[in-house]
Design goal:
The protein has about 400 residues and is mainly β. It is built from five helices and 25 strands.
């Protein structure tokens, strides 16, 4: 049972099992909120101070944005001491519609030398291909509509908690040759006297393979021969979503796919790639081995629904659900049970069965781990991050 100055939820267990007390918060510090929910904990007194960094007009006027000149950076938060960022809201007005891949979001914790977050801003908030879309998930969402979509504008929200002990620093860099007219932002955080020693740090990383190494042309009349006879018994050549060292847990990903290997004869589906998550150096087959792209993202039989929003999984951007052409973004968050690792983790997925597909893949991995984190792959220059131009064989939107 908790001691004085603590609050806990008690869950009665069936006969033979002990009572489980789940502490929510303590005056002596933060306690894990396992098993709690937002409504159940609302009546509990909190020991932190609520703080915010925002782009409000310091003169008292209504010019509540900051511009970002071409090839320049702006600091959106520079916080000292201990705390937890609980919410980030941003929106952008720009003349260049490709701003979601041209702006790079970076975050540093506790004075570290290299950022723990380095992601193009649109992808970070859940939609790839330099686009925005109206979707709702538990940790990420975008809010937009027909008029705003014409200008590729959206409100973007993140609710991943981001702890820090000695400070937090957040920047956005404009890597385009054009000025960004307006960046509006909120960074809402809790100010604490100290954090528990076992609080991990938030990380996010962007990757891309354009194109993935597969068949440039599909030369098999019956693709089911390929599915039956070709084998992948190593995981080599899989698309890598995350490759990290240290102790922590993987919280999920956003994956964006452009169907490049489209033809109007057969086999336009870009899925069937098994997810394989290798933990702590294990060899194939890993303990976490899946059965197909759509299966990992909690769908089935392709993506028959097209776009849909779920709290843990969904499709934030959909192409044509009949032939799977176009631009797609899907997400899967392991919020109910993050994938733990003690030494290392390598999150991979086949691009088509046995890596046969020749498509444009990009991704964001979200995870928590101890510091220092390992080196990130070099972020490609902006020219290598922009959407792939349509080829002559590809179906137009």
């Amino acid at each position: 049972m908790p001691g004085d100055g603590e609050f806990a939820l008690g869950f009665e267990r069936p006969a033979g099992l002990r009572r489980l007390d789940l502490p929510l918060w303590s005056e002596k510090g933060i306690k894990p909120m396992l098993g709690s929910d937002l409504l159940a904990s609302l009546a509990v007194a909190r020991g932190y101070r609520s703080r915010r960094c925002s782009s409000y007009d310091r003169s008292g006027g209504n010019l509540d944005w900051v511009p970002i000149k071409a090839r320049e950076r702006v600091v959106v938060a520079d916080i000292s001491g201990a705390g937890i960022i609980k919410h980030i809201w941003m929106t952008v007005a720009a003349s260049d519609r490709l701003w979601p891949r041209q702006l790079v979001l970076r975050m540093w914790w506790d004075g570290e030398a290299t950022p723990s977050v380095e992601v193009p801003i649109g992808d970070f908030f859940g939609v790839g291909h330099a686009r925005v879309s109206h979707f709702m998930s538990l940790p990420l969402n975008m809010v937009t509509g027909p008029n705003a979509l014409k200008d590729n504008r959206a409100a973007m929200n993140c609710f991943f908690p981001m702890p820090f002990e000695r400070g937090a620093h957040i920047e956005i860099e404009n890597e385009s040759d054009q000025d960004i007219t307006s960046l509006y932002y909120y960074v809402d955080y809790e100010e604490h006297e100290a954090l528990p020693p076992d609080m991990l740090r938030f990380h996010a990383q962007w990757r891309r393979e354009n194109p993935t190494a597969g068949y440039e042309t599909w030369q098999i009349e019956d693709p089911w021969i390929h599915f039956r006879d070709d084998k992948n018994t190593t995981g080599d050549g899989n698309y890598v979503i995350l490759d990290a060292t240290g102790r922590g847990h993987y919280a999920g990903c956003v994956v964006s796919i452009k169907n490049v290997m489209y033809n109007d004869v057969c086999h336009t589906w870009f899925g069937e790639g098994d997810d394989m998550i290798f933990v702590d150096g294990e060899k194939w087959p890993p303990a976490l081995h899946g059965t197909g792209t759509e299966d990992y993202f909690c769908a089935a039989w392709g993506y028959p629904s097209g776009k849909y929003d779920g709290p843990f999984h969904g499709i934030s951007l959909a192409g044509n659900p009949d032939d799977y052409t176009g631009w797609w973004t899907m997400y899967r968050f392991h919020l109910e049970s993050p994938v733990t690792f003690r030494e290392s983790i390598r999150v991979t997925i086949e691009h088509g069965h046995n890596n046969a597909r020749y498509d444009d893949w990009s991704s964001v991995a979200y995870w928590y781990q101890t510091e220092p984190h390992g080196p990130f792959p070099a972020l490609p220059p902006v020219s290598k991050r922009l959407p792939r131009p349509l080829q002559h064989w590809e179906k137009k939107e």
